[in-house]
Amino acid sequence: MSDKRRITLKDIARELGISVSTASRALNSYSGISADTIKLVKDYAEKHHYVPNSIAVNFRKNKTQTIGMIVPELVHPFFSAVISGAISRANAAGYRLLISQTDEKAKNEILACQSMIGGNVDGLLISIANETTNIDHIQEFLDEGKPVIQFDKFSELLDTPKVITDDFESAYSAVKHLIDQGYRKIAHINGLMAVQNSIDRFKGYKKALEDHGLEYREEWVPHCKSISEGEGLEFAKQLMNLPQRPDAIFCITDLVALGVMNYLKSAGIKVPEQVGVMGFSNWKISEVMCPSLSTVDQHGFKIGAKSAEILLNLLKENSQGNHETYKIETDLIIRESTLK
Amino acid sequence: MSDKRRITLKDIARELGISVSTASRALNSYSGISADTIKLVKDYAEKHHYVPNSIAVNFRKNKTQTIGMIVPELVHPFFSAVISGAISRANAAGYRLLISQTDEKAKNEILACQSMIGGNVDGLLISIANETTNIDHIQEFLDEGKPVIQFDKFSELLDTPKVITDDFESAYSAVKHLIDQGYRKIAHINGLMAVQNSIDRFKGYKKALEDHGLEYREEWVPHCKSISEGEGLEFAKQLMNLPQRPDAIFCITDLVALGVMNYLKSAGIKVPEQVGVMGFSNWKISEVMCPSLSTVDQHGFKIGAKSAEILLNLLKENSQGNHETYKIETDLIIRESTLK
DNA sequence: TTGAAAGCGGTACCAT
DNA sequence: ATGGTACCGCTTTCAA
């Protein structure tokens, strides 16, 4: 294996009988350098395949042209889409993307942040883990003067720009659609109320019920801990066995809706005739389910691209930005599961 | 924006009244340092959240503890799983992962490689784009003495270790299962024969037919260009309208199988009774389809983890490894679409 | 066991 | 227009 050392500025300077600073300035075409010298140095550099050692440059400038990105889960259609959007935007601007995942564990998030700080990323894109309450490890970036953008799942404790789904509006219009379809006893399988998305979707759900004079019952709003297919199935069973049985279920996620659909199928309950089902996220599975699942498209790619864009702008301005919240609009996707 | 500089070794040394070298040695637990000093320094470091500036370390050691990873597509259940496996393995070893995607375009792959080289990654994990024929941009890593691992889609022109699905065996056993179920006229919607995976799956398919004395017809093996749902639908239509109509279809991917199923459903052809359908990859959609789709689980996570592991070992040995091929075994997942 | 200092490869400031 | 040099933060050799 060749371990041929790369040629350095010093080598160039020595060979050409000039100083290192002159060589550096020539290569970067600074003003105040004679055209002759520039040509001399550039020709020599090219001929000998000089490649600047970017570690040294980074070290000196304390910049890496690298952005850190931390998500709870990578194998997840929504987050993959977000990452994809961020990579596209960042790469287009000549930035690299360092990616890590937390599996929703605070411990992993801390490790990831340390690793990112250690990697001297110029800025951070993060969607915080469900488990995270203390946010010192993220605050550290801000303390170092590095911009941070929170997307999707965020903490109010961090003063950073945020890019999020418009959960309230999305939930409202999803539930309104159920009402328009004639459903009257609408349940909502929600997430934990410690997570802002869950809170906002719940608020949208409740407001829609209120605005249309429909009954709200606490027993119709169970809370998932892990947002899993299994929980969807269990809660559907629970809801269907209530004395006051709902005639529609608005699920926090398509995966939960899948569990719900599976239970309803096994119990011989007809969707959408007897019970309407609405998901959230528009994963590919929602299109494939039988009956196909009505849901809300979250535009993950756009969320990622927008987050990266904001970060890149802050990097350019050398600022940490304001604390604005950018809400990315959603699309209601109507399919069979809610069309009575 | 506070710009309080991160605390450095020098700060620690000054505060504790020791020298920088002692502080460094204490933090790295060198032998020849008193336990007291080690404790003193480590406690101080922890208390003040000292994080070594890895650019400086990297600079010094000419290593970045960062691995580059390039995939064709990020929003893809298989590749997400591979990435996830690689991240887990790499992070556990204290390595960071720089990720880029090519959208199957050679041009993007070249850009991604340049960016990775500029980022001074220590090694590269890559699944090459369908479009890629010239591999100079990847060879460059090898020329610089950096190890490269190819996974899933590779080029024989590159002398590197490879981690791949055992496509031949997987295809063979998938087709054998169809035969065992009584299907006799088995079609195969394949990918482009320029891609090794397609070639191997085709070989496995053909060998299974031969071993069981079944007829092979070229018209039964159409080739997808983009491996899409739409192509699956089109080819299914084509196959079903052949005078010699197949009674089973082995698809290159679950997505293609979805298109096939949609066509069969629309044409009123019963699965699995009239036509059996087999996918490949075991995406979530295969479980959700109606009828559920038999398929082959590729263990993407394992492929990613194994690739990272091999790379990490080479990094440790400071070698570029042999040109061994590691085949990751698969699991045949039998569901409704092939159970006559 | 500890300290001093060189040096990694650049950049940029201060002289000339 | 060019050279000299300090310096970024850390590791490591040499001395004490």
UniProtKB/TrEMBL annotation, chains A, B:
Which GO terms of the molecular function aspect are on file? DNA-binding transcription factor activity; transcription cis-regulatory region binding
Q: Does the keyword Transcription regulation apply?
A: yes
Q: Which CDD domains would you find in this protein's record?
A: HTH_LacI (cd01392), PBP1_LacI_sugar_binding-like (cd06267)
Q: Name one Pfam family in it.
A: LacI
Q: Does the keyword Acyltransferase apply?
A: no
Keyword terms of this UniProt record:
DNA-binding, Transcription, Transcription regulation
What Gene3D superfamilies does the entry give?
3.40.50.2300, lambda repressor-like DNA-binding domains
Domain HTH lacI-type, first and last residues per copy: 7-61
Note the InterPro entries from the entry.
Answer: HTH_LacI (IPR000843), Lambda_DNA-bd_dom_sf (IPR010982), Peripla_BP/Lac1_sug-bd_dom (IPR001761), Peripla_BP_I (IPR028082)
Question: What's the protein name?
Answer: Transcriptional regulator, LacI family
The organism that produces this protein has a lineage beginning with:
Bacteria, Pseudomonadati, Bacteroidota, Cytophagia, Cytophagales
